[in-house]
Design a protein that fits this description.
Layout (H helix, E strand, L loop, with lengths): L2 H9 L23 H13 L6
GO molecular function: DNA binding; transposase activity
Protein name: Transposase IS200-like domain-containing protein
InterPro entries: Transposase_17_sf (IPR036515)
């Protein structure tokens, strides 16, 4: 399901509205251009939740 499909479904009454925000503040996408970049991103994804505790 895409964001547009969800929003349309909420407006048509087919889906409940989401009680919070859909997007993170300051969110951005990043293109993985090489193996080193891929490794750094994978490491970030793996270790970042540990910093929440």
């Amino acid at each position: 399901m895409t964001t547009n499909e969800y929003i349309r479904g909420v407006k048509e009454g087919n889906w409940p509205s989401f009680p919070g925000k859909l997007w993170q503040r300051n969110y951005y996408e990043h293109i993985i251009r090489n193996a080193r970049s891929h490794q750094q991103i994978a490491e970030y994804i793996t270790t970042n939740p540990l910093q929440w505790e």
